[in-house]
Amino acid sequence: MPINHDPLITNATENQLKALNTLADIQMPTLSIGDFQNVSIEPMIKTAVEQALKKLSNICVSCYGSHKMWCIAEFAATTNPHDVWDTDALVRSPILQDRYASTVAAAVSTVGARGGDLSWPQLSAALTTAANAVLRPPASPLTPRKRAAANQYRAALHAAHHARGDRHAAYRLQAAVRARQAAVRQHKADKLRLRLSTIQGARPVRRMHLLYRFFRRSRRTLLARGAGVTIRAWEAEVQRQAEGEQPQRLPEEDAPVDYATRPLLPSCAPAPSGCRHARRLGLTHLEALVRRHWAECSFPVASITSLQHPVPKILRPREVEDFRTLSLCAAVYKIVALHLLDILQTVVPALPYYQAGFQAGQSTYGHIFLVRRLLDAFWQVGTPVHLLPLDIKAAFPSVSKASVVQALQEAAVPPSLINRVVALALRDWTYVRWGAAATSIVLRGWGVRQGCGVSPFLFLLVLHMVVRRVVAPLPRFHLDFAAPGMVPILCAYADDVLVLSDRQEDVCEFLAAFRAGLSAVGLDFKLRKSEYLVRSPVPDPLPLPRPAWLAGMEVPQVSHLVYLGALITATLSRQPGVYHRVRRAQRSLAGLLPALRAQALPVAALDELHRTVLRPAIDYELGTASETQRARASLRRNDGLLLGALRATARPARPGDQPPLRLQSAAASVRAARIRFRGHIARRPPGHPLRRALAFTAPGRLKQGRPCFDFPRSLHESLARLPPPPAGWEALLLDKVALAAYLCDAAPLRASSDEEAPPDSPRHLLYRQGDSGSSSDSD
């Protein structure tokens, strides 16, 4: 019997029947449910009705028409690997098919016996009940330790319930609770030990990264559970986000841009949400559905609803402000958002070089090099330099939606495309999940999603609009670094902004104008996190830190600050920068040592862990800095201590273990990074800010006294330590692949002359790639 003639669905609306028929057309056009007493199980297996209706009943029970069709098309075209129903066993087992068919018939008969006709929610509930009863795989059995702890807790709870006021019973209950918690912890330790024991399988580097992320995620989860934040606090935060006005739709005078999906590989996921690839027929229906909503400029509520997941920003969070909420969006939304981003990037011109966040071909290394190069150049002539980094408070969640529309209009974006940005990216139904509880769903009135593909682009447009208005009346500022003396400069990486100048007046003028410009778009920066630093060859007689007044605002003046992970000091000293990177590596090692002591790994696996996790934490940003003999010695010494602590947890060698890696010394690794960055600068076009900064010389005479061992001198010594290539350094630096191969193969395999270790010492055997020669300048 066809669906629309089934006597059990007499009160189903036309849209509901159309939605169910759409689901049937996606996977099997010949689907016919017929009488549920004699239901055919094979079509249901192929159509995955139970999965789609479960999603439908939980997400959009009150949605009708195209809203329900959207959800059916999305969830029926994909198979979530986290579903609890074992549909594969249903396909393979005829016995399970008979059980499922009889369970569905019994569930439908039970609902029909209550009187009345079968409605859409009752139909989905019957299918869900049958799937939960038959298709749910059996849970893993309890371990003996957890079973004994559960039995002890059950007996103690029963005794405490019947003997209220008995101290002995209460003590037994507390001991049983502690025993059950200890059993759970021991079970997690056993699972971790099993995971560590299989670390030498396929793709060991990938396993190392996954293991390290597992450690950090587990630690964050424990910290979040121990925080004193309740669901009521998150409910108040969500209600605060609901305040504000929604942007209105603009009149369209141009034809809307057509929608065309990206070509998807047969085995790839349509979005990074964990869903497996969809069938070709499902993608065809999904593309037609999205194309229609794109033309109508109206997207279903279920597709633009996002879940905010709190992530702690500090070690011990105690309030809502200590968390950063990441938005988890639907799979189909991510596809359409990336398509929208591609169109915007073709319409909006590229931002100037001052903005490096989310920009192709730029990284943090470029801005760190610019700042350090200017500091060293002005130190050589004895000119003080003023630095002020600014951190915008809650940048993504606080930006005004009206300012986003205004920034798009100033960028000459067509009104039809702006309307689709408003309908898709700026209209956000959201809620927060905290543990097992969730807040109410509200329509956000401020901000953009932090976790969406198009949100960073929209925020950067708003920030660039503010910066362009701020620097327009300031003649000394140039966003493309075209000033004759290169100062003052403005560097930004997303919402982290830094202003550098040789005059304090420039910093004060920009600070006052920038704060007024941010307030116009609903933003502000954190003064308590904004630190003021002066790099001057003349020693400061007053102690630091101390308050400083800039443009009528109190800002702490410090002796050192961290910008994009790099340490900037008020004096010419290389040691604090090395110690800063070593401390970062020590923190990573501190999180790994407890698990490594519990389960010993072979030396080869530990060396791989050192190379892929600890060494990048040490080498970061040191390739953009100059290097002295003392800094190299300190770097080698601390890197050896880290590796020694890591190898102290190794298990004894067994037959078949891999031999230890031939590790490269920390100084040689930093030297290779410095040469690679020099090649990156050489491959930039003429007039690029990095090329201008490398050849920059500050105006004035060289000061008397202590010299500055700058980046060009350190680079010259790094090149002198290696044998010259046959084609010359100038030609080799222009070839990225050949340069990497040369640094890997042609490096001298001998110990450094800076190391005063006997030839038979473990340290000499450890570092087979080292330095040759030394610098005459030292800190």
TrEMBL record:
PROSITE patterns, sorted: RT_POL
Compositional bias annotation for Low complexity: 770-779
InterPro entries: DNA/RNA_pol_sf, RT_dom
Transmembrane segments: none
Reverse transcriptase domain sequence ranges: 288-568
Pfam families: RVT_1
CDD domains on file: RT_nLTR_like
Organism superkingdom: Eukaryota
Region Disordered, annotated ranges: 750-779
GO terms under biological process: DNA biosynthetic process
Protein name per UniProt: Transposon TX1 uncharacterized 149 kDa protein
Species of provenance: Frankliniella fusca
